[in-house]
């Protein structure tokens, strides 16, 4: 499968994909079964499959303020959703598990 993205014009949204005839037939059939055009079908597949662009945490060696704000909002949302739960310090849990495992190994 060969792909070419035409980026000459910022308004252009064209993406040319060359596929073998058998795959093209299967794509057309799958789109028709869903009452979608091939373009709509492929766009939905790509939206489901291709991960969103990550927000870079750093820019020029400095933390990205947008990313930090998003993390703080997510943390606040988790705390609101689980206000009645106590979250233990995971580093302490890991330390305790390591100590327990060390004791188990020493007893052998």
Mean pLDDT: 81
Strand content: 5-15%
The first-to-last residue Cα distance is: 56 Å
Backbone structural class: mainly alpha
CA-based gyration radius: 25 Å
* Helix and strand sequence: EEHHEEHH
Tally of contiguous helical segments: 4
State the oligomer.
Answer: single chain
Helix content: 55-70%
Strand order of the largest sheet: 1-2
Provide structural commentary.
- With 108 residues, the protein is mostly helical.
- The protein is 56% helix and 11% strand.
- The strands form two sheets. It has a two-stranded antiparallel sheet with strand order 1-2.
- It is elongated.
- Mean pLDDT is 81; it is low at 5-9.
List the helices and strands and how they pair.
Layout: E1 2-5, E2 15-18, H1 21-33, H2 38-49, E3 58-59, E4 62-63, H3 65-81, H4 90-107
Helix pairs in contact: 1-2
Question: What would the keywords be for this entry?
Answer:
two-stranded antiparallel ribbon; 108 residues; two-stranded antiparallel sheet
Outline of this structure?
By secondary structure, the chain is mostly helical.
């Amino acid at each position: 499968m060969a792909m070419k993205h035409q980026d000459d014009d910022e308004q252009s949204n064209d993406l040319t994909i060359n596929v073998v005839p058998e795959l093209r037939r299967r794509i057309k059939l799958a789109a028709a079964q869903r009452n979608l055009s091939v373009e709509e079908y492929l766009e939905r597949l790509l939206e489901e499959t291709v991960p969103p662009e990550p927000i870079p945490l750093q820019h020029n060696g400095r933390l990205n303020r947008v990313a930090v704000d998003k993390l703080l909002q997510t943390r606040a949302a988790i705390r609101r959703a689980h206000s009645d739960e106590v979250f233990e310090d995971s580093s302490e849990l890991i330390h305790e598990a390591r100590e327990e495992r060390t004791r188990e190994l020493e007893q052998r």
